[in-house]
Amino acid sequence: MGRDDELLYLNGKIMPLAEGTVSVEDRGFQFGDGIYEVIKVMAGRLVYLDDHLERLRRSLGEIALSSAIEGHAFDEVLPDLVAQAGLETGYVYMQVTRGWAPRDYALAVGTDSTVLAYTRPMSYPDAAAILAGVELHAIDDPRWARCNIKSINLLGAVLAKEEARREGADEVVFLGPDQSVREGGSSNLFAVVGGTVRTHPLDRRILAGVTRHHALRLARSLGLPVDETAVDLAELVAAEEAFMTSTGVDVMPVVRIAGRPVGDGRPGPVTLRLADALRADVATHVGMPPPPPLRP
Predict the structure, then answer these.
(1) pTM assigned to the model
(2) DSSP state, residue 42
(3) One domain, residues 142 and 97
(4) Catalytic annotation present for 150
(5) Where in the sequence is the domain holding 70, given as residue range(s)?
Protein backbone atom coordinates (compact mmCIF):
# COMPACT_ATOMS: atom_id res chain seq x y z
CA MET A 1 0.00 0.00 0.00
CA GLY A 2 1.47 3.33 -1.07
CA ARG A 3 1.76 6.61 0.79
CA ASP A 4 -0.74 9.38 0.14
CA ASP A 5 2.11 11.87 -0.44
CA GLU A 6 3.78 9.69 -3.08
CA LEU A 7 2.02 10.32 -6.39
CA LEU A 8 3.21 9.38 -9.86
CA TYR A 9 2.72 11.18 -13.17
CA LEU A 10 3.22 8.52 -15.85
CA ASN A 11 2.74 9.33 -19.52
CA GLY A 12 0.04 11.89 -18.78
CA LYS A 13 -1.82 10.06 -15.99
CA ILE A 14 -1.60 10.56 -12.23
CA MET A 15 -1.77 7.54 -9.93
CA PRO A 16 -0.34 6.26 -6.62
CA LEU A 17 3.38 5.66 -7.03
CA ALA A 18 3.04 1.99 -6.10
CA GLU A 19 0.73 1.40 -9.08
CA GLY A 20 3.15 2.61 -11.77
CA THR A 21 4.66 0.08 -14.20
CA VAL A 22 6.83 0.21 -17.31
CA SER A 23 7.83 -2.47 -19.82
CA VAL A 24 10.82 -4.72 -19.10
CA GLU A 25 11.97 -3.73 -22.61
CA ASP A 26 11.92 -0.04 -21.82
CA ARG A 27 15.23 1.31 -23.10
CA GLY A 28 15.78 3.14 -19.84
CA PHE A 29 15.70 -0.20 -18.00
CA GLN A 30 17.84 -2.13 -20.48
CA PHE A 31 20.24 0.52 -21.78
CA GLY A 32 20.07 3.42 -19.33
CA ASP A 33 18.79 5.37 -22.33
CA GLY A 34 17.23 8.31 -20.54
CA ILE A 35 17.58 11.52 -18.55
CA TYR A 36 16.51 12.48 -15.02
CA GLU A 37 16.11 15.46 -12.70
CA VAL A 38 15.57 15.82 -8.95
CA ILE A 39 13.81 18.99 -7.78
CA LYS A 40 13.59 20.09 -4.16
CA VAL A 41 10.19 20.81 -2.61
CA MET A 42 10.00 23.21 0.33
CA ALA A 43 6.79 24.62 1.84
CA GLY A 44 4.87 22.78 -0.87
CA ARG A 45 6.70 24.60 -3.70
CA LEU A 46 9.28 23.44 -6.22
CA VAL A 47 12.67 25.13 -5.83
CA TYR A 48 14.36 26.53 -8.98
CA LEU A 49 11.89 24.65 -11.19
CA ASP A 50 12.70 26.64 -14.34
CA ASP A 51 16.42 25.88 -14.02
CA HIS A 52 15.76 22.15 -13.68
CA LEU A 53 13.43 22.08 -16.67
CA GLU A 54 15.96 23.97 -18.78
CA ARG A 55 18.67 21.46 -17.87
CA LEU A 56 16.27 18.60 -18.64
CA ARG A 57 15.72 20.05 -22.10
CA ARG A 58 19.48 20.45 -22.65
CA SER A 59 20.19 16.86 -21.65
CA LEU A 60 17.38 15.51 -23.82
CA GLY A 61 18.77 17.48 -26.76
CA GLU A 62 22.20 15.90 -26.21
CA ILE A 63 20.74 12.39 -26.67
CA ALA A 64 18.39 13.27 -29.56
CA LEU A 65 15.26 12.96 -27.42
CA SER A 66 13.94 16.53 -27.32
CA SER A 67 10.55 15.54 -28.73
CA ALA A 68 9.86 13.24 -25.78
CA ILE A 69 8.38 15.96 -23.57
CA GLU A 70 6.24 17.64 -26.21
CA GLY A 71 2.74 17.81 -24.78
CA HIS A 72 3.94 17.53 -21.19
CA ALA A 73 3.57 20.98 -19.61
CA PHE A 74 5.85 20.29 -16.65
CA ASP A 75 5.72 23.87 -15.43
CA GLU A 76 2.03 23.18 -14.70
CA VAL A 77 2.08 19.39 -14.20
CA LEU A 78 4.70 19.30 -11.46
CA PRO A 79 3.22 21.98 -9.16
CA ASP A 80 -0.14 20.26 -9.57
CA LEU A 81 1.40 16.88 -8.72
CA VAL A 82 2.98 18.33 -5.56
CA ALA A 83 -0.33 19.96 -4.58
CA GLN A 84 -2.34 16.77 -5.14
CA ALA A 85 0.17 14.79 -3.08
CA GLY A 86 0.05 17.37 -0.29
CA LEU A 87 3.86 17.27 -0.21
CA GLU A 88 5.37 19.97 2.00
CA THR A 89 9.05 18.94 2.19
CA GLY A 90 10.74 16.48 -0.13
CA TYR A 91 11.46 16.21 -3.82
CA VAL A 92 10.10 15.42 -7.25
CA TYR A 93 12.03 12.85 -9.27
CA MET A 94 11.62 13.13 -13.05
CA GLN A 95 12.72 10.62 -15.68
CA VAL A 96 12.38 10.52 -19.46
CA THR A 97 13.49 7.46 -21.45
CA ARG A 98 13.33 6.51 -25.10
CA GLY A 99 10.57 4.08 -24.16
CA TRP A 100 9.71 0.56 -25.22
CA ALA A 101 11.33 -1.12 -28.21
CA PRO A 102 12.62 -4.63 -28.96
CA ARG A 103 16.14 -4.78 -27.51
CA ASP A 104 18.64 -3.42 -30.05
CA TYR A 105 21.51 -0.98 -29.72
CA ALA A 106 20.27 1.00 -32.71
CA LEU A 107 17.85 3.79 -31.78
CA ALA A 108 14.30 2.71 -32.48
CA VAL A 109 12.21 4.94 -34.74
CA GLY A 110 8.67 5.96 -33.84
CA THR A 111 8.65 4.64 -30.28
CA ASP A 112 6.69 6.34 -27.51
CA SER A 113 8.93 7.74 -24.79
CA THR A 114 8.34 6.95 -21.13
CA VAL A 115 7.80 10.20 -19.22
CA LEU A 116 7.36 10.15 -15.48
CA ALA A 117 7.63 12.19 -12.31
CA TYR A 118 6.85 11.28 -8.74
CA THR A 119 6.77 12.94 -5.33
CA ARG A 120 8.59 11.74 -2.25
CA PRO A 121 8.90 13.23 1.25
CA MET A 122 12.41 13.84 2.54
CA SER A 123 14.05 15.95 5.22
CA TYR A 124 17.05 18.15 4.45
CA PRO A 125 20.16 18.84 6.55
CA ASP A 126 19.47 21.06 9.54
CA ALA A 127 21.86 23.59 11.04
CA ALA A 128 23.55 20.97 13.23
CA ALA A 129 24.25 18.71 10.23
CA ILE A 130 25.64 21.60 8.19
CA LEU A 131 27.91 22.71 11.02
CA ALA A 132 29.16 19.12 11.43
CA GLY A 133 30.21 19.03 7.77
CA VAL A 134 31.16 15.99 5.69
CA GLU A 135 34.20 13.94 4.69
CA LEU A 136 35.29 13.16 1.12
CA HIS A 137 36.98 10.07 -0.33
CA ALA A 138 39.00 10.65 -3.52
CA ILE A 139 39.20 8.20 -6.44
CA ASP A 140 40.21 8.33 -10.09
CA ASP A 141 37.14 9.11 -12.19
CA PRO A 142 35.87 5.85 -13.80
CA ARG A 143 32.85 7.39 -15.55
CA TRP A 144 32.15 8.10 -19.21
CA ALA A 145 33.22 11.38 -20.77
CA ARG A 146 29.78 13.02 -21.02
CA CYS A 147 29.05 13.88 -17.40
CA ASN A 148 27.40 17.12 -18.56
CA ILE A 149 24.42 14.96 -19.57
CA LYS A 150 22.22 14.08 -16.58
CA SER A 151 21.92 10.48 -17.69
CA ILE A 152 20.28 7.70 -15.71
CA ASN A 153 23.54 5.74 -16.27
CA LEU A 154 24.78 6.08 -12.68
CA LEU A 155 26.66 2.83 -12.03
CA GLY A 156 30.03 4.61 -11.83
CA ALA A 157 28.70 6.96 -9.15
CA VAL A 158 26.92 4.13 -7.32
CA LEU A 159 30.11 2.05 -7.01
CA ALA A 160 32.25 5.07 -6.11
CA LYS A 161 29.86 6.26 -3.41
CA GLU A 162 29.73 2.75 -1.98
CA GLU A 163 33.55 2.73 -1.80
CA ALA A 164 33.41 6.08 -0.02
CA ARG A 165 30.86 4.71 2.45
CA ARG A 166 33.08 1.72 3.21
CA GLU A 167 35.94 4.14 3.90
CA GLY A 168 33.79 6.07 6.37
CA ALA A 169 33.30 9.07 4.09
CA ASP A 170 30.09 10.86 3.13
CA GLU A 171 30.84 11.60 -0.53
CA VAL A 172 33.32 10.75 -3.24
CA VAL A 173 35.45 13.20 -5.18
CA PHE A 174 36.26 12.24 -8.77
CA LEU A 175 39.77 13.06 -9.99
CA GLY A 176 41.07 13.53 -13.52
CA PRO A 177 44.35 11.93 -14.74
CA ASP A 178 46.19 15.08 -13.60
CA GLN A 179 44.60 14.78 -10.13
CA SER A 180 42.32 17.70 -10.91
CA VAL A 181 39.17 17.78 -8.79
CA ARG A 182 36.12 17.33 -11.02
CA GLU A 183 32.98 16.81 -8.92
CA GLY A 184 31.37 14.56 -6.36
CA GLY A 185 29.28 11.47 -6.94
CA SER A 186 26.11 13.57 -6.67
CA SER A 187 27.47 17.05 -6.01
CA ASN A 188 29.68 19.85 -7.30
CA LEU A 189 32.83 20.65 -5.32
CA PHE A 190 34.44 23.96 -4.37
CA ALA A 191 37.62 25.10 -2.62
CA VAL A 192 38.39 28.44 -1.02
CA VAL A 193 42.01 29.25 -1.92
CA GLY A 194 43.48 32.60 -0.93
CA GLY A 195 39.95 33.87 -0.28
CA THR A 196 38.81 32.93 -3.82
CA VAL A 197 36.00 30.45 -4.44
CA ARG A 198 37.30 27.97 -7.02
CA THR A 199 35.48 25.18 -8.83
CA HIS A 200 35.85 23.10 -11.99
CA PRO A 201 34.68 24.91 -15.14
CA LEU A 202 31.61 23.75 -17.02
CA ASP A 203 32.62 21.18 -19.62
CA ARG A 204 31.86 17.56 -20.46
CA ARG A 205 33.52 16.27 -17.28
CA ILE A 206 31.02 17.72 -14.79
CA LEU A 207 27.31 18.33 -14.49
CA ALA A 208 26.09 21.91 -14.59
CA GLY A 209 24.52 21.77 -11.15
CA VAL A 210 21.52 24.00 -10.52
CA THR A 211 22.68 24.62 -6.95
CA ARG A 212 26.22 25.21 -8.27
CA HIS A 213 24.83 27.95 -10.51
CA HIS A 214 22.99 29.69 -7.68
CA ALA A 215 25.91 29.36 -5.26
CA LEU A 216 28.19 31.09 -7.77
CA ARG A 217 25.54 33.74 -8.44
CA LEU A 218 25.24 34.46 -4.74
CA ALA A 219 29.02 34.41 -4.21
CA ARG A 220 29.40 37.10 -6.85
CA SER A 221 26.55 39.13 -5.36
CA LEU A 222 28.35 39.00 -1.99
CA GLY A 223 31.51 40.35 -3.59
CA LEU A 224 33.45 37.10 -3.19
CA PRO A 225 36.15 36.41 -5.81
CA VAL A 226 35.17 33.47 -8.02
CA ASP A 227 37.44 31.45 -10.31
CA GLU A 228 36.01 28.62 -12.40
CA THR A 229 39.36 26.85 -12.62
CA ALA A 230 39.85 23.38 -11.18
CA VAL A 231 42.05 22.76 -8.16
CA ASP A 232 44.02 19.55 -7.85
CA LEU A 233 43.71 17.15 -4.93
CA ALA A 234 46.71 18.61 -3.10
CA GLU A 235 45.24 22.11 -3.39
CA LEU A 236 41.87 20.88 -2.17
CA VAL A 237 43.38 19.24 0.90
CA ALA A 238 45.46 22.37 1.61
CA ALA A 239 42.60 24.82 0.96
CA GLU A 240 41.36 27.19 3.65
CA GLU A 241 37.86 25.81 3.15
CA ALA A 242 35.98 23.37 0.95
CA PHE A 243 32.32 22.71 0.33
CA MET A 244 29.95 20.88 -1.95
CA THR A 245 26.62 21.84 -3.46
CA SER A 246 23.60 19.83 -4.57
CA THR A 247 19.82 19.88 -4.49
CA GLY A 248 19.91 17.57 -1.49
CA VAL A 249 22.31 19.56 0.70
CA ASP A 250 22.36 23.15 -0.69
CA VAL A 251 25.84 24.28 0.51
CA MET A 252 27.53 21.65 2.71
CA PRO A 253 30.96 22.22 4.32
CA VAL A 254 33.68 19.65 3.62
CA VAL A 255 35.73 19.33 6.82
CA ARG A 256 37.84 16.23 6.07
CA ILE A 257 39.33 14.49 3.05
CA ALA A 258 40.55 10.92 3.60
CA GLY A 259 40.72 11.56 7.33
CA ARG A 260 42.74 14.78 7.00
CA PRO A 261 41.14 18.05 8.13
CA VAL A 262 40.44 20.85 5.68
CA GLY A 263 41.62 24.09 7.29
CA ASP A 264 40.99 23.76 11.00
CA GLY A 265 38.52 20.93 10.44
CA ARG A 266 35.49 23.16 10.89
CA PRO A 267 33.20 24.98 8.43
CA GLY A 268 34.88 28.22 7.39
CA PRO A 269 33.45 31.74 7.20
CA VAL A 270 33.14 31.86 3.39
CA THR A 271 31.33 28.53 3.30
CA LEU A 272 28.92 29.50 6.06
CA ARG A 273 28.28 32.89 4.49
CA LEU A 274 27.35 31.18 1.23
CA ALA A 275 25.28 28.55 3.02
CA ASP A 276 23.31 31.28 4.79
CA ALA A 277 22.83 33.15 1.51
CA LEU A 278 21.57 30.07 -0.33
CA ARG A 279 19.27 29.01 2.49
CA ALA A 280 17.79 32.51 2.50
CA ASP A 281 17.48 32.48 -1.30
CA VAL A 282 15.59 29.17 -1.23
CA ALA A 283 13.33 30.42 1.55
CA THR A 284 12.51 33.58 -0.40
CA HIS A 285 11.87 31.49 -3.52
CA VAL A 286 9.17 29.47 -1.74
CA GLY A 287 7.73 32.33 0.32
CA MET A 288 9.19 31.38 3.70
CA PRO A 289 11.07 33.61 6.17
CA PRO A 290 14.85 33.11 5.99
CA PRO A 291 16.29 30.72 8.60
CA PRO A 292 18.54 32.12 11.34
CA PRO A 293 22.28 32.36 10.54
CA LEU A 294 24.21 29.14 10.96
CA ARG A 295 26.78 30.80 13.20
CA PRO A 296 25.42 33.98 14.83
Answers:
(1) 0.96
(2) E
(3) no
(4) yes
(5) 7-121
